[in-house]
TrEMBL record:
This is DUF1059 domain-containing protein. It holds the Pfam family DUF1059.
Length: 48
C-alpha cells in the first residue's frame, strides 16, 4: 500500500491509507497548485 507522496514543491504528504493519501494530495493541489489536477491513478503512480 502506498501512503506517501513527495510533491515537487517540497511538501511530503502522508496518508493513513491510499484513500487518505489521495484525498490529502488533492487538497494540497487545490490549495497550493490550483492549476494542476491529478486523478487517483496518477497520484498513486507517484506515491511510495
Amino acid at each position: 500500500m502506498k501512503t506517501t507522496l513527495d510533491c515537487p514543491c517540497g511538501t511530503r504528504i502522508v496518508g493513513d491509507d491510499e484513500d487518505d493519501l489521495v484525498e490529502k494530495a488533492q487538497a494540497h493541489l487545490a490549495e497550493k497548485h490550483p492549476h494542476l489536477e491529478y486523478d487517483r491513478d496518477a497520484i498513486l503512480f507517484m506515491a511510495f
